[in-house]
Write a structure and sequence with these properties.
Blueprint lengths: L10 E6 L19 H5 L5 H8 L7 E3 L20 H18 L3 E6 L6 H11 L3 E6 L19 H5 L5 H6 L9 E4 L6 H10 L2 E3 L5 H14 L3 E7 L21 H14 L1 E8 L4 H11 L4
Parallel strand pairs: 1-2, 1-3, 3-8, 4-5, 4-7, 5-6, 7-8
Helix pairs in contact: 3-4, 8-9
């Protein structure tokens, strides 16, 4: 099979350091050693580091402008979504950049999980029925407005499936049918989000720590009939014994070797045309950044 690797020719690297989808500084419980303003912006630094540490890229790169305004006015909850105005504005700009670049594939270095909505919707429109989504995340991300958690990151996957804020959904070039979405690594069973997931009929596979688990994922891909995939990776899914730069701390996550094996197995079976990495939380560097601001540099 002819492969389109998402870091190869035709790929766009999209930098999208959106943080507003996390609902307030209490989300991170005012991270130790980090002030309230920086706690709000905790997912803003991660995308730049992900890009810096990644292999060189000779193709096009686009940057979504993301506000760093943490005032109460900028972060007002509207229609059940925290900082809805900023979320919609930045989503619209990301879609504009994608339409202008017209990439065949997209790698997104993102802040919180809602950054996948724009590129995955763009790719769904580009590839139609020949497209499926794998959502590798400890959380379901299938919340909707009106539930107890108001951060849009918790609504990202439901939005892609056409469930949620009607105004935001109307901005999207395409939706992804729930039967072409598979969740992997889910271990935080938020009752409100899980109820939406089950009503939509989105399937799930566990931590995939064996080759047999990978076979279940590959069988699901084959059953969709899709030959092009978009893969969302929330780094919180990883076990902190392998990676501690995310908010997840329970030692029951996916091991890095298992994640890499799964992605390699998927890329051998289909074309990975979308790949998102989100929620890198570089706590030590955030503390260092705060110190540097206080020095006479």
């Amino acid at each position: 099979m002819s492969q389109i690797h998402p870091s190869g020719p035709g790929a766009l690297r999209l930098h999208f350091p959106q943080w507003q989808g996390s609902s307030g500084p209490q989300t991170h419980q005012l991270l130790p050693g980090v002030d309230a303003h920086d706690s709000q912006l905790s997912y803003h630094l991660g995308p730049a580091l992900l890009s810096l540490l990644s292999p060189n890229h000779d193709g096009p790169t686009a940057y979504v402008p993301v506000s760093t305004d943490t005032s109460d006015e900028a972060l007002t909850t509207v229609d059940g979504i925290y900082a809805r105005e900023a979320v919609v504005r930045q989503l619209t700009e990301a879609l504009r950049l994608l339409r202008e670049a017209e990439p065949a594939s997209v790698v997104t270095f993102g802040g919180e999980c809602s950054v996948s909505v724009a590129p995955f919707s763009y790719l769904a429109n580009l590839y139609g029925d020949d497209f499926a989504v794998l959502w590798i995340d400890a959380h379901s991300d299938t919340g909707v407005p009106g539930q107890s958690y108001t951060g849009f990151r918790s609504m990202a996957l439901a939005t892609l499936a056409g469930e949620g804020d009607a105004g935001i959904i109307a901005e999207l070039p395409a939706l992804v049918p729930p039967l072409k979405i598979l969740q992997i690594g889910l271990r935080h069973w938020d009752e409100e989000g899980i109820a939406v997931k089950e009503r939509l009929g989105i399937q799930a596979v566990g931590i995939t720590d064996t080759a047999e688990d990978s076979r279940r994922v590959l069988d699901w891909v084959a059953g969709t009939g899709a030959s092009r995939l978009a893969v969302h990776i929330d780094l919180e899914v990883l076990d902190p014994r392998d990676f501690s730069g995310a908010t997840g701390q329970q030692t029951d996550g996916m091991r890095v070797s298992d994640l890499v094996r799964l992605i390699n197995d998927l890329s051998a079976a289909a074309e990975i045309v979308g790949l998102t990495l989100t929620k890198h939380l570089p706590l030590e560097l955030m503390r260092l950044s705060g110190m540097l601001r206080d020095l006479p540099l």
